[in-house]
Amino acid sequence: MLSQISAAAGRLLISEPFMLDPNFKRSVIILTEYSPDGAMGFILNHHSEYLLGDVLPDVSYSELPVYDGGPVAKNTLHFIHCVPEKIEGGIEITHGIFWGGDFEQAKELVSNYQLTESEIKFFAGYSGWTPQQLDDEIIQDSWIVADNFKSETLFSNDEQNLWKDVVIGLGQRYAHIANFPENPTLN
């Protein structure tokens, strides 16, 4: 088994290097919920085709990217942030990182240029697992679980290198995986 750490809210899921599912290919996911009822999270490194202004035309600071949070409920908008002093009501998922909160407050802060990409990240849709599904996928080595990462990782906009950087950050045991080709037949 690749992963030595169990899944939990606030931990990262890193897809195995040869995952074929296009929804999760070379993905890094922050888990926001994990319980016997299932799990939920957001893909951190897959940009959607939209900017925030495309999905919220009443928000004047429209240049913030919207990420593809996963294949479930793509018509919903979610966010994580690291500014609980600015956005009330979020759920702390790991030290200093919050999921959701007062959406109208967040929109106003974005419109007034009082939030930056290093403080908030928006997602269309989410990634979800039924009871035991994620645990089974981890046992099958589809995912590596990480609990030691910098909070800046969550707000990185380096979509191309985030997966590789997170894998290398796992240490010597995993670093070689970062250099595997996406298609093993090209090796």
Automatic annotation (TrEMBL):
SUPFAM superfamilies documented for this protein: VC0467-like
Domain of life: Bacteria
Pfam families per the UniProt record, alphabetical: DUF179
InterPro entries tied to this protein: AlgH-like
Family under the similarity heading: Belongs to the UPF0301 (AlgH) family.
The organism of origin for this protein: Mucilaginibacter pocheonensis
Name assigned to this protein: Transcriptional regulator
